[in-house]
Amino acid sequence: MTEPVDNPKLDEHPGSNTEKDPENWVSGDDPMTGAQASYLTTLSEQAGEEPPAETLSKAEASQRIDALKSHLGLA
After folding, report:
1. Whole-angstrom distance, CA of residue 46 vs CA of residue 44
2. Furthest-apart CA pair in the chain: how many Å?
3. What pTM does this model have?
4. For residues 66 and 75, is the Cβ–Cβ distance under 8 A?
5. What SS3 state is found at 19?
6. Contacts of 20 (CB under 8 A, 6+ apart)
7. How far is the C-alpha of 20 from the C-alpha of 61, rounded, in Å?
8. Which residues share a beta bridge with 57?
C-alpha cells in the first residue's frame, strides 16, 4: 500500500508559498537573471557600492537585493 502524498493545495488552511527563502529555491543555483543584474546595479549605485559580480546565482542575487533595499530603507 502506498502512503498518501501530502498536497498542500488540498489543506483547509494552506500556508503561503509566495515567499520562500532563496536558499530553498529549486533554481537558486542558476545564474542570476538579467532583471536581477540590472536591479542590483541600480541599487548598488544608489548605495555607493561596487556593482555585483556577474557570477552571482539567483539566490545570491535575491539576498543581495534584499540587503541593499534594507540598507537604502526601501524594504
Report:
1. 5
2. 61
3. 0.65
4. yes
5. coil
6. none
7. 14
8. 31
Whether 29 and 62 have beta carbons less than 8 Å apart is answered as: no
Residue 31 dihedral angles phi and psi, to the nearest 5°: -60, 150
**How many Cα neighbours within 13 Å face the side chain of 22?**
16
Half-sphere exposure of 57 (CA within 13 A, CB side): 11
- The pLDDT tens digits of the residues spanning 21-57 come to 656 655 657 899 999 999 999 999 999 999 888 899 9
Q: How many whole angstroms separate alpha carbon 8 and alpha carbon 74?
A: 32
Burial 10-26 (b: 16+ CB within 10 A, else e): eeeeeeeeeeeebeeee
5 or 49, which is more confident? 49
